[in-house]
User: What shape does this take?
Amino acid sequence: MMLRTPPPKKARSEAGGSSTPTGDQLVIYEDSPLPAPLQTASHDHSDQHLCTYQCRQMVKSDVLDALSKAEKQAQGYQTMLQTLNQNFTQADEERKQFRDKFLYSEQELAAAKGREKVLQEQLLMEMNNSQERYTKALQSCHDLEVVKLQSEMNLRTKAESSVATAEEKAKLLEEKLSQLSGSVERERNRLNNDIAHLGKEAKLSVSRIGADLERMQCRAQSAETESDLLRSQLEDLKQKFDECLHEKTEVYKKLSSFTSEAASPSDNNVLFKTLQEELKRCEAEVREARKLKSQQLDAELLKVKLLEEKSRRERAESELSKLPELQISFDKLENELCSWKSLLNNIPGVYCPDDVVMKFSALQKEVLDSTMKIGEASTRFNQLEAALDATQLGKQNAETEAALAKEKFEALKSDVKRIEAMLALVTEEKEQLKAVVSERRKSNSDGSVSATTDGTLAQSFESSLAKKENYLKELEKELSQLKDVNNRQRDEIEHLNDKLVSEARRMKSLERDSDRLRSEISLLESKCKLGHGDFSAANTRVLRMVNTLGVENEAKQTIEALQAELQKTKERLQAVEELKSQSGDAGKLVDSHITGKIAQLKEQIATLEKREERYKTVFADRISVFRRACCELFGYKIVMDEHQRPNGIPVTRFTLQSIYAQSDDEKLEFDYESGNTSILDNQYTSQGEIAKQIEIFIRKFNSIPAFTANLTMESFNRRTLY
Amino acid sequence: MASKTAAAKDIITLHGSAAIVSEFFCYAANSILYNRAVYPEESFAKVKKYGLPMLLTQDESVKSFLSNLTCQISEWLEAGKLQRVVLVIMSKATGEVLERWNFRIETDAEVVEKGVSREKSDKEIMREIQAIMRQVASSITYLPCLDEPCVFDVLAYTDTDVAVPFTWVESDPKLIANPQMVKLHAFDTKIHKVDTLVSYKNDEWDEEE
Assistant: This one.
C-alpha cells in the first residue's frame, strides 16, 4: 500500500538524509512533527542560539516562507506523488495487463508445449510404429526373401538334380528297356520260331508216322485180304489138286489097266517119268522165277526202305547238326534270360517283363511330375516377384509416410521456432518491464510496488523459458538422431533394393534357362516320341498284318514240300499196285506152282509182320522219345487213353502229371473230342487254388496252356528253395 | 483326290486326303525297298509320279501285300483312327531291326467329326511330297549299308477302339536300341499332316569311332 502520510523520524532519517540540518541553517524549534530533528538540534543549540523577537519574527517569516515553500513543494510533491501514483497505477495496470498477457502467453506456451508434447508423442509413436513396422516389414521381407530364395534355390537344385537323375535313369532304363525289349523280342521270335519249327516237325513227323501207320495198316489190310484171297485160292487149288490127284490116280489106274492090257509098260513109265521130270523142272523153274520176282520185290522194297532211311538219316543228321546250335542257342537264351532276370532284379520295383513297361510309364510320369514341379517353382518365382513388388510398394508407402512425418516434423519445427520467437519477444518485453520496474523502484520508494514478486515471477518465467529451451534442444537432438536413423534405414533400404534387383535379374535369367531347358526337353521328347516309336498303351495299339510275306513264303515252301511228298507217295502206290497186279496175274496163270506161291505168300506175310513189328517198335521208340521230349519240354507226363461215354461216343482222355508234382494224386484229366478239349473235375482240381486257376485261365481266358504253364511254375517254385 | 478346282486352291475332302496319304505311303514304301536294296533292282519298274521317276515293285506278293495295306490305311485314315505308320527293315537271319521309317500322322478332328472340307493347292501338296521322295532317295548317303539279306514289315499305330481286322494282329513296336535319327520333311493336306523320320541302328564303324 502507498502511505500518504510520511513515515516517522527514524524512517525518514533512514530514508532521506537530505532533511537533516547542518550547522549553517537555522534550527527552528517548533511543535510540528517536522521539528523532531529541530528539537533535537535546538537542545544542542539552545544555549548558543538565543535570538531576539525580531530575529524570531524574521525567522518565523523565513520559516513561514520556508513552510509555504515546503508546503508548495509538498503540494508539488503531492501532485507529483499523485501523478506518480497515477503513473504507478497505470504502470500497475499495465503490469497487470502485461502480467495477464504474460500469463496468457504462458498459457499459450503451456498449451503449445502441451500440443507440442502431444504432437511429439504422436510423432514419436507414429515414428516408432512406422519404424517398427518398417523394421518388421524389412525383416520379414528380408527373411522371406532369404528363406524363399533359399527354398526356391534348393527346390530348383533339387528339381534340377531330380530331373537330371530322372533323365539319366530314364535314359538308362530306356536303353535297358530297348535292349531288354530287343533281346526279349529276339528271344520270343527265336522261341516262337523254334517252337513253331518243333511243332511243325512234330506235326510232320506225327503226320508221317500216322501216314506210315495208315499205309502199313492199309498194306496189312490189303495183305490180309490178299492172304484171304490166296487162302481161298489155295483151298480152291487144293480142291483142284485133290481133284487132279484123284484124276491122276484114276489116270494111273487107267494107265495101269492100260499097261496090263498093253505089251510095253516100260515106255509109258518112261514117258510118265519124263513128264514128271519135266513137270518138276518146270515147277523148279517157276519156283526160281517166283523167287527171283520176290527177290526183286524185296530188293525194290529194300531200295525204298534204304531211300527212306537215307532221308531219315539225313534228317537226323541235319537235326543232329542243328542240335549243338540249338543247344548253344538254348544256352544263350538261358544266359540272356538270367541276365535279363538279373537286370530286372537290379531295376527296383520290377519283377517281370510287364513291370518294365509299368516302370517305364512310372518313370515317364516322374519326368512329367518333375517338369510340373519346375512349372510350380516358376509359378512360385512369379509369386515371389509379386510379393517383392508388394513389399516394394509397402516400402514406397512407408517412405511416403516417413516423408509426411518429416514434413510434420518440419512444420512442428517451424511452429516451435515461431513459439521461440514469440518467447524471445516476450522475454524482451519482460526485460523492458524489468527495467521500467527497477526505475520505478528507484524513483518512488513509498509507492513502490513489491518488485520482488515481479523478480520472482520473471525468474520463474526465465527458469521456465530456460527449461523450455533445454527441452527444445533435447527435441532437436532427438530429431537429429531420428534423422540419422532414417538415413541409415534409407541406406539399408537402398542396399536391399539393389539386392532385390540383382535377385530379380538372377530369377529372370533362371527362368529363361528353365524355359530353354523345357523347350529342349519338349523337343527331345517329341523327337523320342516321333523317332523312338514310344507310345502310350492307353491310347495307342500297334498292329501288323498276319499274312506277311515271310509267312507266305514259308507256307509256299511247306506246300511245295508236301506236294513233293504226295507225288512220291503216289508213285510208290502206283508201283505197289503194279506189283500186286503182276503178282496176281502170275498166281492166276500158273496153277502148278501153288505151293511155291503159298511159301512166297507165307514169306511175305512173315516179312510184313516183321515190318509191322519193326514199324511198331520204331513208332513206339519215336513215340516214347516224343513223349519224353514233351515231358521234358513242357513238364508234364501225358498218358493217352481211349474211353467211351455212356452214349457210346469214343473219347480220347489225356492224363497229365507234372514232373514237379509232390504226390501221385496231382493229376489233370482232359477229354479230347473232335478238336475240343475239356478239363475233368477230380480231387486235385477241386482244391481251392487249382479251382481258382481253372476258373481264371480255362473258363475265363479259355487257355489250357496258360493254366498248365502257371501250374508248372507254381509247383516248380514250391519244389525249389530260394 | 481334289474334287473341284477353285481359283488358286483346291478343295480337299477327307476321302481325298486319305487317298493322297495312302498313295504316298505306297510309293514311299516302294522307294525305300528299292533304295535300301531289300528286293533286287530288276524286280522294280519305273513310273512317273509326283513329277519324279518312281520305282514300283513287280513282285506279285509284295504288290498284293502293299495294296492290302494301303486299303486298310485309307480306311483308318478316313475314320481318323490312324496315328502312325512304321516301315521296319529287319535282318532275315537274326530278325534284328535295322531301320525304322516313321510316318507320323496328325488328323484334323473337326473334319472327321463334321465332314467339312479344306482348301489347299494340289501342286503345293505334290511339291511337298516330292521333297520327301527326294530325301528318301538321298538317304543312302548317310544310312549304313545293309550287307545282309533283309525283310520288311509294316506296323500301324492306331487308336485302342479300332476293330482289329482278322488279317491284322497286335505286335510289339520293334524298336531299335540307341538309334540314330534323321528327321525328314513333312507334308500337309490341311486334313492330314504327315511327319517323316528315319531311325537306324548305329553302324559298327561309327561305334568304333
